[in-house]
């Protein structure tokens, strides 16, 4: 059985949603629920980051894009990754784009002190503001480049749809997109209500 380490309002929501689409058994371990759960995460992932996925064979995967690609390849019927190689390459392109440009900026916004040799409040606020500005611009570029590759209501959603729906929930991104890219914002709002995924999103963002 898969064991997914995460907590509410985290990137683990994307992996939980993907596991639901794969229709496989899994256990969600909330690392904020107890010291023991957090210690178990630390043993699997020295960075102590979520999501971390313990595979049925005892292997460990970290990093959202890597986990989504693994699940898509392991469960091709899930539609997480397209069967067509050209379309699949574009989905992987989009996943890596989100991780490199959007997830990375959120890490700076959430933990600016990690990126400053000398921490003072002025530098901290300036770094956070710059990262947020870059994050929102990166999502504008994503909307322009990838909107045509997202779920249109037929068949099952895919990995790129799920990751976009989760990562846009942080750092004021959706509020920004409501004005800057209203079409993409409307798509996100519709996607949140997808019957297979809405229960997962509701658990993470009640």
TrEMBL record:
GO molecular function list: transferase activity
Family matches, as Pfam families: GST_N
Domain GST N-terminal as annotated: residue spans: 1-79
Cross-referenced InterPro entries: Glutathione-S-Trfase_C_sf, Glutathione_S-Trfase_N, Thioredoxin-like_sf
Keywords for the protein's UniProt record, in alphabetical order: Transferase
PANTHER family assigned to the protein according to its UniProt record, in alphabetical order: GLUTATHIONE S-TRANSFERASE GSTA, GLUTATHIONE S-TRANSFERASE-RELATED
Protein name (record): Glutathione S-transferase
Protein's organism: Pseudomonas fluorescens
